[in-house]
Specification:
The protein is α/β, with parallel strands linked by helices and 383 residues long. It has 11 helices and 16 strands. The strands form 4 sheets. It has a 7-stranded mixed β-sheet with strand order 12-11-10-13-14-15-16, with helices on both faces. Strands 1-4-7-8-9 form a 5-stranded parallel β-sheet, with helices on both faces. The radius of gyration is 22 Å and the shape is globular. It starts with 19 loop residues before the first strand and ends with a helix. One of its GO terms (biological process) is 5-phosphoribose 1-diphosphate biosynthetic process. It is an enzyme of class 2 (transferase).
Amino acid sequence: MEQQHSGTEFFIDGNGVADLGLIATPGAHELTALIDSHLVRWANRKGLNKETFIIPSECPRFSSGDGKGVIKDTVRGDDLYFVVDVGNYSCKYRLFGSENSMSPDDHYQDLKRLIQAASGKAHRITVIMPLLYGSRQHRRTYRESLDCAYALQELQSMGVTNIITFDAHDPRVSNAVPLMGMDNVMPTYQVMKAMFKHIPDFKPTPDSFMVISPDEGAINRNMYYASVLGVNLGMFYKRRDYSRVVNGRNPIVAHEYLGESVEGKDVFIADDIISSGESMLDIGYELKKRGAKRIFCNATYAIFTAGLAEFDKAYADGIISGVFGTNLTYRTPDLLSREWFHEVDVSKYIAYFVAAINHDMSVSNIIDPHAKIEALLQRYGVK
């Protein structure tokens, strides 16, 4: 079995501790609909005759730019789950006649507006925020703001009891709210499943496959992949110029490699985010110089802030063989149309979380995917 749960066991006695409700903030409707489809299917298998768990809402704006949150149904006594995608820049609003893209700040503000609209009447509030607001600024070096830590404290003060996030840039940010639940989840199993589906002749064995960490910050996630697959691990570290700051960071001078030879082997590189993609491509070119066979990149959030042209060229030149990214944040139609991009659907994973929390059940088996990965490897004859 690929999953440890069928989903139906979560709906044995109705709707759990309270009626379950999903509320999608602007820009998160696609992901919320996918989560809802799983929950509805499981509920109806138990004869609950549900059409949807989604509670209609909106965040209209005045022409001056002021906004408000509106929930269009009762939520009194409900177990509410707010879904927000702070990275969805495709959402637009008009300000004094000009069209503006919503920033992470705008999405976070809309989340707070909808929580306010619940007016304290909900039984419990959980926020599903896969891309954690402000999380890239995760530590203070000089006189700098710590937006993520402060936002978590603000949500706690508004009555949020739990936050579900994925692959936080620095999970230690949960120390800001030690009395509030915070689940930092890794979509490892979903990525492995997508790789077996999309990569021809994919056999992650020690003699033909290696995992490479793109930097020291990503070592833990890559170490996990290497451990569960039983393959070797290598690592790059970034040599930076600390005398300058470019685009908010110290520029990278070179990528230095530590590890055994990658010659003739397929290589897998995992990181939390592909922003401009410059670092990932630099590592791809370095690995090709060292004789790597196929190079597969993975990022939980593949946002490509500098566009797709450089990745198109790297794919055409045979530098990279594929990029795997989740549907946890906005992907452009251009990205989804690329032959080299493979989407990893994580909606079912989130649905398990929602159902388990709604029934006050343990999420330990859901968080730890080791048994499911072992079953996946056995299914494809790897172990």
